[in-house]
Amino acid sequence: MHTVGIVAGWGEYPITVARTLREQGYRVVVAAIRDHASPELEKIADATYWVGVCKLGRMQRFFHQQGVHRICLSGKLFKEKILFHGWGWIGHLPDWECIRTMYPLMYSHRKSTTDDSLLSAVVASFERHGMKTIPGTDYATQLIAEPGVLTKRGPSPRIEADMEFGWKMAKSMGQLDIGQSVTVRDRTILAVEAIEGTDACILRTGPLCPRGGFTLVKVAKPQQDMRYDLPTIGPRTIQCMERAGGTAIAIEAGKTILLERERTLQLANKAGVSLISLQRV
């Protein structure tokens, strides 16, 4: 059996990737990020190692011991808690490989700590140690949203105008690697996602637009690397939209992960939230 490693963060995505790999006959080895990953992974994986978020060298040694040459980065990391709480990333006691990888980004005035910068550095570190990073969606292809109206309720002409306007704005924000999402009503940007994440951006929109009826537009970055940080929605996204008064979500077909598809669409239909997957050339 071929072995595939998973660096697992928070959420359903790493669980789905692990299950799909097992179904496809792979041996699955998981480096589970402590305080992020789900214990459910232990029931699925052939081997699991719980590791601190800044123990990059330990992850690599574990994968080497398990004969891993291909890995998937999957699941969310709470960047604000890692970088800006307590002593920041140093408070997580980084090992030497993590220091070697991150120090040039953290303490250089010429480089940034955007998601792309940090994650590309992590990928380069794994590659230096003989491990190739593969998109999890190369295995779990069922997670990628196809184009079309995915819910019973489609968009009104007003929402269609908001989607088109929000798409351009979200792509511009993605180009700057600030975030993937914007909320919009009547072609006015209400909120922009940054480090807080999409759910917090949605909930922040509620008080800004008490009339409700706003649209969430979530897209891939123009420079999107399919190996990490793909836009993702799931049941919690719908719950946040319902709570905040949103009525439509526009996502990018072919580049967005749709988690727990059946439950997500059931919740959206019940809440009256339209989900539209757009494809743009």
Summarize this structure as a short list of keywords or feature phrases.
2 domains; alpha/beta; five-stranded parallel sheet; 13 strands; single chain; six-stranded mixed sheet; 281 residues; Rossmann fold; Cytidine Deaminase, domain 2; globular
Order of helices and strands: EHEHEHEHHHEEHEEHEEHEEHE
Mean pLDDT: 95
| DSSP helical segment count | 10
Domain count:
2
The main pleated sheet reads as: 6 strands, mixed
Task: Give helix % range.
Answer: 25-40%
Say how many strands there are: 13
Rounded to an integer in angstroms, the radius of gyration calculated over CA atoms is 19 Å
- Structural class by SSE content: alpha/beta
CATH topology label of the largest domain = Rossmann fold
Poorly predicted regions are: none
Q: Which oligomeric state applies?
A: single chain
Strand content: 15-25%
CATH class of the largest domain: Alpha Beta
- Arrangement of strands in the largest sheet: 6-13-11-9-7-8
Query: For the terminal residues, how far apart are their CA atoms?
Result: 39 Å
In CATH, the architecture of the largest domain is 3-Layer(aba) Sandwich
Described by the principal axes of the CA atoms, the overall outline is globular
